[in-house]
Amino acid sequence: MNSPVILIIDDESQIRKLLTITLQSNGYHALESETAKEGMITAASKPPDLILLDIGLPDESGHEVLKHLREWYSNPIIILSVQDSEEDIVSALDHGASDYLVKPFRTGELLARIRSALRKNSFDENSSVMVSGDLIIDFGARVVKKESKIVKLTATEYSLLALMMKNEGKVLTHQYLLNQVWGPSYKNESQYLRVFVAQLRKKIETDPNRPMHIITESGVGYRFMSK
C-alpha cells in the first residue's frame, strides 16, 4: 500500500522541516513548497492526498490559494496559521478548508486531524450504513441506533445528525449547517441551530453536558467525533 502524499505549503523553512520529519516518521510521504505559486504548481503536477496550507504566504494570501485550489482539488486541505480570529477560521472553512489549526500546535493533534481528514472517504457512498463509535446510522432506512437501541429523531434532527456523521472529524460552520439543513433563509439563525444541537445531544450523548460526539467549536460551528 502506498504511503499517503502530503503537500506542505509554508514559507517558514523550520516549520516545513519539522512537518516533513513528523510526517515521514509517521508513514507519510511529504512534499514541500515555500510559495503560493510553487504550491499550486506542485499540487497540479503531483496531486497529493492532503495539503497543509499556511495562510501567511509571501506572494499570495493562503485564503486566495484555498479558493484557487478548490476550483479543481477535492482532497482535504488543512489550514495552519498564526491567525486565530473567528473571522479567519470561519472564512477558511466556508471556502473549503477541511480543518484549521492555529500555530503553535501539538504534533499529536496535527496527526489526529490528518488521520481524520484522510478518513473522508471512509464513509462509502455506496453503503447505506455507517458505524461511528457507539452510533450506527442506516441511511437507507433513516434509522439511528445507539448501543443497538433505536434513537427516535425528528426529520430535522435526523438530517442534521446525518450531515455531521458524513463529515466526521470536520468542522462544519453554523452557516453551512443552517444552509444545508434548513435552507438559505435560515443562514443567520445560529440560536435555532443551538436548540436542535441541544436536542440531539440529549438523545445521542451519554452525558449531554459533556458531549463526546457533537463538539462545539466556539464561535465557528460543530465537529462530529467518534468516541
Structure, explained:
The chain is built from 8 helices and 12 strands. The protein has about 230 residues and is α/β, with parallel strands linked by helices. It has 2 domains: about 5-120, Rossmann fold, CATH 3.40.50.2300; about 130-225, Orthogonal Bundle (Arc Repressor Mutant, subunit A), CATH 1.10.10. A 5-stranded parallel beta sheet has the order 2-1-3-4-5, sandwiched between helices. Strands 6-7-8-9 form a 4-stranded antiparallel beta sheet, with helices on one face. Strand 8 and strand 9 (about 150) form a beta hairpin.
What would you say about this model in short?
Helix content is 38%, strand content 22%. The chain has 227 residues and is an alpha/beta fold. The longest helix is centred in the C-terminal third of the chain and has 15 residues, at 190-204.
Which descriptors apply to this entry?
Arc Repressor Mutant, subunit A, 38% helix, alpha/beta, 227 residues, 5-stranded parallel beta sheet, Rossmann fold, 22% strand, 4-stranded antiparallel beta sheet
Largest sheet: 5 strands, parallel
**Average of pLDDT:** 90
User: What is the structural class?
Assistant: alpha/beta
Tell me the series of helices and strands, N- to C-terminal: EHEHEHEHEHEEEEHEHHEE
User: What is the percentage of strand-forming residues?
Assistant: 15-25%
Number of strands: 12
Strand order of the largest sheet: 2-1-3-4-5
CATH superfamily of the largest domain: Response regulator
Q: What name does the CATH topology of the largest domain carry?
A: Rossmann fold
Provide a count of the helices: 8
Low-confidence stretches: none
Q: How many structural units, i.e. domains?
A: 2
What's the end-to-end separation, in Å?
Answer: 28 Å
Radius of gyration: 18 Å
Percentage of residues assigned to helices: 25-40%
Q: Any guess at the CATH architecture of the largest domain?
A: 3-Layer(aba) Sandwich
Please give the CATH class of the largest domain.
Alpha Beta
* Overall 3D shape: globular
